[in-house]
Amino acid sequence: xxxxxxxxxxxxxxxxxxxxxxxxxxxxxxxxxxxxxxxxxxxxxxxxxxxxxxxxxxxxxxxxxxxxxxxxxxxxxxxxxxxxxxxxxxxxxxxxxxxxxxxxxxxxxxxxxxxxxxxxxxxxxxxxxxxxxxxxxxxxxxxxxxxxxxxxxxxxxxxxxxxxxxxxxxxxxxxxxxxxxxxxxxxxxxxxxxxxxxxxxxxxxxxxxxxxxxxxxxxxxxxxxxxxxxxxxxxxxxxxxxxxxxxxxxxxxxx
Length: 255
Ligand code: COA
Hints:
It is a single chain. It is globular and about 55 Å long. The chain is built from 11 helices and 10 strands. With 255 residues, it is α/β, with parallel strands linked by helices. The protein has helices spanning 28-43, 65-72, 82-92, 108-111, 142-150, 152-160, 167-172, 185-197, 201-211, 214-232, 235-245, and strands at residues 4-9, 12-17, 49-54, 58-60, 97-101, 104-106, 118-122, 126-128, 165-166, 178-180. It has a 6-stranded mixed beta sheet, sandwiched between helices. Helix 2 runs antiparallel to helix 11 (235-245) and helix 3 runs antiparallel to helix 10. It has a single domain, classed as Alpha-Beta Complex (2-enoyl-CoA Hydratase, Chain A, domain 1). Coenzyme A (COA) binds next to helix 2 and strand 6.
């Protein structure tokens, strides 16, 4: 079974991150498929809205940390890192993007939501962006977008202290439109996606363009990516990935 599922319901393309045994952690190959899905959706007139979700009870545990370890070991050149391509596609995606978040949303699982036009959370959703705990820095434009959305000190606490927020808090901070019971999550998100798919596509795309400066976003994303890539190769990050693999807390005392 593919780790990124794609299915079309009318004019809605549903993209499901489907690696439940690893909490839907996203590998480089999976990012490549996500890039293909966004490019296809952008080009295909029959697709008017994209709905992103996760299989099972998790949205995604974020980047696959073993992939990060491979990059840290020099295994992948910048242009081979599909995650960076995915972020660019997200920033410039012109059709409406909706997220249905069934549970944990770590790292890109939360920063992706900042690029979605509507966000529906299950009551069981928990959002976190523990980049500093991994010796990394915010990505996906989140160094700018998260503080714009929720304020600097809340954003800093999420990035630097790894604070997790529950669905109700996320709703009250403006990170979501709705919190719903888990059993109606997909139905609610699909209803919203179909409502958007029935709107005039030109007006939707133009409204989205007015509300999001994608060129400015791409500049922030590129700046973050330079620092992120350097951090991935740092001894601090090596310690973080080794600790995760060894199921122990990282020890940053020596740095
Ligand atoms: N990358 C790679 N593998 C991951 C992963 C990730 N980001 N997140 C979870 N997994 C794997 C675990 O290694 C484990 O694999 P195993 O069964 O082969 O040992 C499996 O998914 C289940 O995870 P587990 O930790 O046992 O589940 P949990 O419910 O106790 O905890 C999380 C879930 C998501 C809280 C925890 O796995 C976690 O903190 N993951 C890392 C999240 C992260 O830092 N992401 C990067 C953000 S940039």
